[in-house]
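Give me structure tokens for this 142-residue protein.
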Amino acid sequence: MRLGLDLHGVIDAAPIFFSELSRMLLQRKHDVYIVTGREDCHELRQELSDCDMLYSGILSITSYQASQGTPIAYLDDRKSQPLMDPKVWNPTKAMLCATAGIDIMIDDSSLYEPYFRDIKTQYIIYTPAVQGFLNLMFYCKP
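Here you go.
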């Protein structure tokens, strides 16, 4: 299985849980991908390290679009908040997941959900109910 996890609003909302989940999945020979809007850079990898996350790879909307020559502006000097045309930005997460063969994508935003309708990746919005279900499945042993 290949699991995709969004960083902001998912991993950083429950870093201990997702750190443990990623370790368990990787030990069982599954893949865990970080799928984020942020650029794949030292600061992003440090943020993942601070959350104690292990992962197979990073799929970055910003890094991908930069490689395609897409114009990107930034909201701040740290370049932590990239800005680009929503018609380009919004479908990119689904395209990256489809290309990488992600089976399940967990994200906190419904913005991307329509773009996942025609691909094989199951898109799950990280709601309190989903959080409770994941905790139940992960921590309850028969």
